[in-house]
Specification:
alpha+beta, two-stranded antiparallel sheet, single chain
């Protein structure tokens, strides 16, 4: 049975930790992925990186379906931008930065490489919203957040608001 995990909230410094590659493809990894999906669904999110639940491994879950019944699990995901790409602007939100949305420009064409829970390597060239979500979640694995795309002034305002709201640190 999957359990709900605690999502770290900005400016928690653990969100800046760079995740390590997964080397063990076992039941523990599978359980963590299912717990992350449960947590993501409970928080009404569409993607969640292991870093956001204080697990610093390269694991991402997401589900972009309206019915919330098409879970995707990416282990050790990485991407490269395809030549001739355009920048795609999309208003993004983040479970670790509640109440904050920002239009962010990202490449619209990427080549994605990842492993599944069995350790098999897969490839894809995602499009649209999936491309945006993949890049957003991989940013988390690399210790980067949405607030890194805005001005320092705006970032400080968001930080102050969340510190007051969640009374952390």
């Amino acid at each position: 049975m999957a359990k709900k995990l605690k999502i770290l909230i900005f400016p928690d410094p653990r969100l800046r930790k760079v995740a390590e590659n997964v080397t063990k493809f076992d039941k523990c990894l599978e359980n963590l992925a299912h717990d992350m999906l449960e947590t993501m669904y409970d928080a009404n999110g569409i993607g969640l990186a292991a870093t956001q639940v204080d697990q610093h491994i390269r694991l991402v879950v997401m589900d972009l379906s309206e019915e919330r019944n098409e879970p995707r699990i990416f282990v050790n995901p990485m991407y490269e931008v395809i030549k001739g790409h355009n920048m795609f602007e999309f208003e993004e939100g983040c479970l670790s930065i509640p109440g904050f949305n920002e239009v962010i420009a990202r490449p619209d064409k990427i080549k994605l490489i990842w492993q599944n829970l069995k350790g098999e390597t897969l490839h894809d060239t995602p499009e649209g919203m999936l491309t945006v979500c993949i890049q957003h979640e991989i940013d988390h694995l690399d210790g980067k957040l949405m607030v890194d795309y805005v001005s320092a002034l705006k970032r400080d305002r968001i930080k102050s608001k969340l510190l007051k709201e969640f009374k952390r640190f």
